[in-house]
Amino acid sequence: MDRMTATQGAGEKQWGDEEKGVSMKYCKMVAVSFLVLGLWACNAEATSGYSWAGGSISGYDGPDLGDDIGLGFSTYAYLQGNEDSYSDPYESWAEVYDEESESYGYGYASTEGEGDVEAYANSMDGSYTKAIGRASSQWGFRIDTEEDLGAWLTLDIDWGYGLEVSTDDLGHWANSEIALSARLINITTGEESTCAVDDALYAMDGEYSYFDMGSTSSLSLFFNEGDEGMFYLEAYAMAEASGPASIPAPGAIVLGSLGMSLVGWLRRRGTV
Questions:
Q1: What is the rounded distance in angstroms from the CA atom of residue 216 to the CA atom of residue 3?
Q2: pLDDT tens by residue, 6-25
Q3: 18, 20, 116, 210 - which has most CB atoms within 10 Å?
């Protein structure tokens, strides 16, 4: 009987130790969970602004464009605080990027009358970031037509752009802007046909907004035999974001404090 009682007592002790171990295991899990939730609530996503814009010739009607008197292109990229922000002119593309904040500016242009730009500004907590992308394309030509009285030249331009702003907390703001313009110029006579589009989007205090757009515009101009002409396209995108240092919400402070208290208690018991 004494042996059975001793065995039973040992079994109960072992079961009690296992139960205690399981309880402590769950205590650890709860403590870490509270701590992680508190840290997550205190560190929300950064405020950001994003914009992109592009345009290109999509259609042509009129006389032959004879000799190409190519005038080239230029691109430009800028990022707040980045030493490599400014690109050299007459480059087909320019890009600057900050790995820490993931912010960037980008511009691309071609002599075929095409331009594409992007800008993304990601504000780390307590910082201001601004990014710009710009590209311009100049395409020159000399009219070749058998019409003694000249002819009309029409170019169709496809536009596209998007804007997005996201703010995470009170006092945060983000802004994004785009501008696109196209010009068909008769260099010989000085006449020109133009079209342009610009847009902007702004958000603050936890707001979020997104917008995109696509359209087609036409440029028409009269040319005589031998007239020199130029098509000019410019695309611009800008994004900026400001996120002052956030004040943790009361709930986040409570969660974090509970987690730290539980972890401290477990350490005193020598279980962590």
A1: 95
A2: 444 544 444 454 444 444 44
A3: 116
